[in-house]
Q: What sequence folds into this?
């Protein structure tokens, strides 16, 4: 069921609202940035994401093809969300870090289905052989 | 497995370090607010190894550590975090999880 969640970084500098259906699936990936961050994301359409803070305090990290903006707080470092344009998943999107959704029962997150992506081998729509470390 | 020396780095390579430890001795995950936000997966080591201290001190001279120092100040845990040993603790907490 799609619900509206509030999300934030640790220090509260980044704040947003996002309409997320956790039952529809979350994602973990073994690409270089997701691995280092152990990022756990949920994809939402741009109209399902509403930033509620000043952009000035949010860093924007890009690399390689620059197709994704990996956003993180300049103060606490927490990677609270990202956004970009990837044709294969329907174009423009936002990704919220589900570990940054506020006031969430841990059991709800634990029950959320996870789709694993083998980004490390540029094989994004298949699960890698090893996922336990993600 | 015996102790090994690992190289660690952030994604862009600005932060780099070496650390020596035995992964079989146990890693740690935590459900505190910060660890949940960063999905921290940690290996705690003592700052007694001169090699470890030296390498992290060298790293502290890079722009990356300037950023990290600012983080320490901004995070409200001032002063005591700014000694080498305590900065090392921060590295343990926030970077060695990224091995």
A:
């Amino acid at each position: 069921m799609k619900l509206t969640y509030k999300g934030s970084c640790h220090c509260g500098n980044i704040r947003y609202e996002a309409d997320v259906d956790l039952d529809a699936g979350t994602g973990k990936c073994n690409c270089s940035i997701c691995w280092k961050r152990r990022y756990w994301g949920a994809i939402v359409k741009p109209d399902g994401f509403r930033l509620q803070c000043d952009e000035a305090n949010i860093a924007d990290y890009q690399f390689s093809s620059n197709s994704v903006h990996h956003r993180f707080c300049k103060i606490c470092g927490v990677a609270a969300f990202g956004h970009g344009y990837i044709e294969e998943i329907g174009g423009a999107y936002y990704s919220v870090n589900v570990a940054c959704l506020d006031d969430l029962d841990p059991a709800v997150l634990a029950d959320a289905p996870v789709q694993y992506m083998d980004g490390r081998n540029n094989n994004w729509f298949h699960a890698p052989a090893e996922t336990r470390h993600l | 497995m015996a102790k090994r020396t690992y190289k660690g780095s952030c994604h862009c390579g600005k932060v780099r370090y070496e650390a020596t430890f035995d992964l079989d001795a146990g890693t740690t995950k935590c459900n505190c607010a910060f660890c949940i936000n960063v999905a921290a997966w940690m290996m705690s080591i003592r700052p007694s190894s001169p090699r470890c201290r030296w390498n992290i001190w060298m790293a502290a001279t890079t722009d990356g550590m300037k950023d990290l120092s600012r983080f320490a100040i901004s995070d409200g845990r001032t002063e005591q975090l700014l000694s080498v040993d305590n900065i090392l603790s921060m590295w343990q907490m926030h970077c060695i999880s990224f091995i």
Summary: The helical segments of chain A are 32-37, 106-111. Chain A is about 10% helix and 40% strand.
